[in-house]
Specification:
Length: 243
């Protein structure tokens, strides 16, 4: 194989790896969103106190922003927007596969169908809240990422990674928690999922603090991925390559 061919293979593999990570994290987040996690803290935070409450999907979903930021940096705004929109469609493919499996008849040797439904069959509130939050926050993340890149003249990858993710995660958190646990229950959709205002605020703060920490700590990994793939010939639309 020629050098150009090897370089082309590296570009294809690297690009596919980012897309694969993005879609895998996105689907995992959708499947794990129903479980609410609680962690004790050695200090106290406003609203949440000494506990951190967040959906089980928080880590997986935070990784989607890592993937989209790497993709946006390497391939530009329009390809990153296409990645986000394809991911949105893949959510529906995942839901169709899960619900068709739930509806299919179970064999005698199968796990209990009701338990299977309980674990994988997310409520309407979770599905609608997460899809709406995804569509708004992920598209905003791409827009903010490139706006910060323009402001910094292509420098300071850390600023656009943290800045775009911090703002988009705030949007995502508010939309998801509000729609899933306040707006839809108030409209009569699974009203048993409705939460008091204090609990809603605690869930928002806990989820956002966790996601913000992930955004800060994943910055060296963004540099590592982007640096490695650029060294393998990946092309960015940025005005210059220095950071």
């Amino acid at each position: 194989m020629t050098e150009a061919g090897r370089r082309g293979d590296a570009i294809g593999t690297g690009q596919l790896a980012i897309v694969g990570l993005f879609v895998t994290a996105l689907v995992t987040a959708q499947l794990t969103a129903a479980k609410v996690l609680q962690f004790g803290l050695p200090f106290s935070l406003p609203v949440t106190g000494d506990v951190l409450v967040l959906p089980g999907a928080a880590l997986a979903y935070a990784l989607t922003f890592f993937g989209s930021d790497c993709y946006a940096e390497l391939y530009g705004k329009r390809p990153a927007q296409r990645l986000v929109n394809v991911g949105f469609v893949m959510n529906f493919v995942m839901l169709a596969l899960v619900y068709s499996t739930i509806a299919a008849p179970a064999a005698r040797s199968s796990v209990d169908p009701q338990q299977f439904r309980t674990v994988l069959g997310a409520s309407t509130n979770i599905v609608v809240g997460s899809l709406l939050a995804y569509l708004v926050s992920q598209n905003w993340d791409v827009i903010a990422f490139h706006k910060i890149r323009e402001w910094t003249d292509g420098d300071h990858l850390w600023a656009r990674n943290v800045g775009s993710t911090a703002s988009s995660q705030a949007i995502d958190t508010v939309i998801f928690v509000s729609v899933a646990f306040a707006v839809l229950p108030e409209l009569g959709v699974n009203p048993e999922l409705g939460l008091p205002t204090g609990v809603l605020l605690s869930l928002m703060v806990g989820q956002y603090v966790f996601k913000l920490l992930v955004a800060v700590f994943d910055t060296p990994f963004v540099y590592a991925v982007v640096g490695y793939l650029r060294s393998r010939g990946h092309v960015s639309s940025r005005p210059r390559t220095a950071d």
